[in-house]
Amino acid sequence: MAHRNLSAALLLAAALIGLDTRLASAKEVSVVIGFSLSPYVIPDEQRGMEYDIVKEALALEGHTMVPQYVPLGRVAKVMETGRTDAAMTQRVEVGVAANYSDVYIAYRNYAITLASRDLKIDRVEDLAGKSILAFQNATIYLGPAFKTVVAGNPTYREEAKQISQPILLFLGRIDVVVADRNIFSWFAHAPEVAGKVDTTQAVRYHPLFPPTEYRMAFRDAVLRDSFNRGLASLRESGEYARIVARYSPLMVEENKP
User: Fold this and answer.
1) Helices 239-247 and 49-59 meet at what angle, rounded to 10?
2) What's the whole-model pTM score?
3) Are 215 and 91 in contact, with CB atoms under 8 Å apart?
């Protein structure tokens, strides 16, 4: 009996030591975030599917997330200057020297056109010669084939504020929007867009790109490892799935045309 009690006491002590060590290393973590990513990140409400996943994964390790919002194209630059602990929505291909986490979320980008235009876009190469409005760093995130096709296209541009994408598409001023389907839908249904254009126009989603997987980029490898542990715990507990389910009503059904 005494031996069992001693073993239990030692296990408890070890657990408490581990907890004390984790709490001692707990910190406020500044995270730079692109501001035009709703419903993944909804800045005005300090929430979103991606936002909540990162925040909760850090919290499980005792950390508090402190968001810094900048245009998506500046996220990597802020990370490079050392003015933040971490950057959200990153890919190794961007080339920022950092400690990258496990994949924690994936976006699904499409070429989006007006159905009334009846444009035939079945391959990335079909985008050649068309006026295109994409999100910032699309030529990095979407791979070399896309970068090659739009290189030298004077009517290709990238925009930090993605709310302009549905406006210009519905006005017929561009041929193609390249964006995540959920982000496009979110802004297409925004009151400030509906007040300017006819948002009832049918659109087509051309599935040219595979899902784009994103990681967190950390300056510190220890903090990266801590996030990975929190992310694993979030998945194992079922909380990750609950976060996704919570935002599902805001997401577009992928099986719609």
Assistant:
1) 160
2) 0.83
3) yes
Q: How many CB atoms lie within 10 A of CB 11?
A: 10
Give the sheet arrangement for strand 64-70, strand by strand: 64-70, 28-34, 86-90, 212-218, 99-107
Burial (Cβ within 10 Å: 0-12, 13-18, ≥19) of residue 248: exposed
CB 145 within 8 A of CB 162: no
CA dist., res. 111 & res. 120, Å (int): 11
Give the whole-angstrom CA distance, residue 227 versus residue 215.
Answer: 11
Instruction: Quote the CA–CA distance of 113 and 115 in Å, as a whole number.
Output: 6
What is the radius of gyration, based on Cα positions, of the chain? 22
- CB-CB contact of 67 with 31 (8 Å): yes
User: What span, in angstroms and rounded, lies between the C-alpha atoms of 90 and 103?
Assistant: 10
Q: How far apart are CA 246 and CA 49, in angstroms?
A: 8
pLDDT tens for 182-239 read 999 999 999 999 999 999 999 999 999 999 999 999 999 999 999 999 999 999 999 9
Helix (H) or strand (E) holding 90: strand 86-90
Report how far residue 57's alpha carbon sits from residue 96's, in angstroms, rounded to the nearest whole number.
Answer: 22
Q: What is the model's pLDDT at position 151?
A: 95
Asked if 108 and 211 touch (Cβ cutoff 8 Å), the reply is: yes
